[in-house]
Amino acid sequence: MIFAVEVKSIRKTYVSGLIRRRRKEALRGITFAVPQGALWGILGPNGAGKTTFLSILSNLIRPDSGEVRVLEMDFQTRAMEIFHGINLSSGHANFLWSLTVRENLEYYAMLYGLSGRQRRQKVEELIALFNLTEFSRVRFDELSTGTKQKLSLAKSLVNEPQLLFLDEPTVGLDPDIARRIREFIQDLHHRRKTTILMTTHNMQEAESLCEQVAFLKEGVVRAFGTPQELKQTLHLGDTIRIHFRGSLPAAILDRMTGLYRVLLQGTTCLVEVDDHRRRLPQILDVFIHNKIMVDDVSVRRSDLEDVFIKLAG
Amino acid sequence: MKTYLLNWRAEAVKIWAFAFKNWIMTKRNIFTLFEMLFWPVVGFLSVGLLAEFAALQPSMKAFILVGVVSMGALQVCQLDVAYALLYDVWSKALKHGFVAPVGIRHLLLGSMMIGMIRGGLVFIFLAGASCFLFGFNFAGRGFVPVALFVAGLFLNAAVVGILVCILVLVFGNRAEVAAWSMVSLMLLVCGIYYPVSILPAWVQVISRCVPLTYLLEYFREFYGFKPAGSHVLIKAYAMAAAYLGLEIVAMKAAVTRAKRTGILLKLSE
To answer: Which of B13, B27, B195, B200 has the most CB atoms less than 10 A away?
Structure first.
C-alpha cells in the first residue's frame, strides 16, 4: 500500500517564556499512516494537537522527535518536491488584504511556478469551480466569510495537490455554504482521488465525509477507526425507546445479546443496543411473546458526537 | 539537480510573484506612497534648508545632501524587502507562502525588483530636487559613479531588508519596528550627516562594519572628502555581498528555528 502520510512517534513540545520557561506538550508520540486516496478526519477537543499535527505534516512546524514522511518523501531532503504535491486550506481564511480574489489566486499560482496561459486557465477554472466570478475583482478584505473560505479552498487547489490538508474547512460558515463546501470536498476526493486529511469540530461533517477518523486528546491518538468502529469500540449503541402498556418484568431482556443497557422509566423502556436494525425485531419479539402492548417505538442512532463526548469527557 | 531547479521559467515566475505582490500592495495602500514621498522629502528639505541657512560651502552641502538623499532611497528600497514577509505577517497569511515551493532567493529578488523601482524613483526625485533647489548636481562627476553608488545603496538595502525578515522570524511581529528603526541606526553610525572620524573610537569600529560607510566615502571622494582607507567601493560591495550571503544562511536557520518554536504558525494566526 502507498501511504500519502506516514508518521512515527512524533512528539512536539512548545516552550515559551524567556525567564520562566513554560512547556506545553502538544503531541506525545503519534504514529499514523494515511493511504493514498483516503479521506480521513482528525477529531478532538480544543488544544488536542490537531492543528499542530497538520502543521507538522505541512512542514510549518518541526517535530522534536519522530519520523515524518509525506508522499513517500522526507522534508529534510526533499521539501520542495513535497511542497509541489501538497497544499492546505484553513477555516478563518486569511490572505493579502489588498489583493482581489483573482490576484490572490494568481499570486499563489505563481508561487507554484505556473506561468502564462497555464496560470490564467487554472485561475479561471478555480474561479468558475467555486462560483467566484462576481467576486473576482473584489479585494479580499471586502469579502464575506463564506467567500473568503471558498477562496481558501480554491487557493489550495492551484497546484492540483495529491495531498490536501483542510483545517476546519467549514468553521463559522452558514449551513448552506458549509454544505456546498462539504459536497465539494467529497467531489474532489471521488473525482480527483486527492488524499484529504481534515480536522473538524463538526461531528456530522466528519461522519458524512470521513472514511476513518482519529480522535486526538492531549497529544495522543485515543481512538481510531471508521465512525461505526469507534461507536462499537466505545460501546456506544443505538437507543431504542419503547412506550408500552402494562408492566414489564425487569429481567425480561437480560438474556438478549447486543444489549448495552436497559433502563425502565414507568411505561417507557430505553434500550441501548449495538445495532438497532438487528436488535429491534428481537426486542419486539420479546414484547409480543410476553403479550405486552407496544404503543410507540423510536430509535436514536448514536453518532460521532457521542463518541466525541465520551472520549473528550 | 532536480528538474524543477532547472526550470528557469518557473524560477522567474516565482520571483515575479513577490514583485507582483509588492507592486499591488504598494499601489493600493496610500501609506506606501507616503513612505516614498513624505518622509524622504521632509528629511531632504529640512537638511537642505538648514545647509542653506548655515551658508555651508558647496562641498559641505554636497556632503550632507549625498547623505540625506541616499538615506531616503535606501530606506524605501529596504522596506520592500522587509514587506515581502511583513505583508504576509500582517495579513496572517504567512503559512501559505511557507507551504509553497519557494525559497529566500525568490523573496529577495522579487521584492528587490519593486524596491529598486521605488528606491530609484526616490533617488531620482531627490537628486533632481537637490539640483533644482540647492544647486547640487549628483551626476556632476559622471553617471558611472552615480550608478555604482545607487547600485551599492540597493545592495545595502537588501542587507537591511533581509535582516528585518530574520528578526521578525526570530522574535515575531514585535520585531517589525526594526523595518523603520534599522536605517535610523545606520544614520547614526555610517556618517550620513557627518564624517565617521568625529565619532568615538568604539563607534567607528561599528561604522567600519557597515558597507554604507564605505559607499558614502566612495561617492563623497568626488566632492573632495578623502576616504579613511583605500578601495572603499570594493570594500562596500564585498562587505555587502558577504553579509547578504551570511544572511541567506541565517534566514534559512531562522526559518528552521521558527518552525521549531512554532513562531511561523503563530505569525499566521
So the answer is: B13
- The strand pairing partners of A213, in sequence order, are A41, A225
A3-225 topology per CATH: Rossmann fold (3.40.50)
Residues A129-165: tens digit of each pLDDT: 899 999 999 999 999 998 999 999 999 999 999 999 9
Residue whose cell numbers read 481510531? A224
Q: What is the ipTM of this complex?
A: 0.90
Show the domain range for B47: 3-266
CA distance B268 to chain A (A): 8
Q: Does A31 touch chain B (CB under 8 A)?
A: no
CATH 3.30.70.980 fits A236-312, yes or no: yes
Identify the closest residue of chain B to A55 by CA–CA distance: B265
Flag if B13 and A139 touch (Cβ within 8 Å): no
Beta bridge partners of A216: A221
A76 touches chain B (CB under 8 A): no
DSSP per-residue codes, A242-288? EEESS---GGGGTT-TTEEEEEEETTEEEEEES-HHHHHHHHHHHHH
The DSSP symbol for B175 reads: G
Look at the block and give the residue holding cell 545592495.
B155
Say if CB A210 and CB A227 are below 8 A apart.
yes
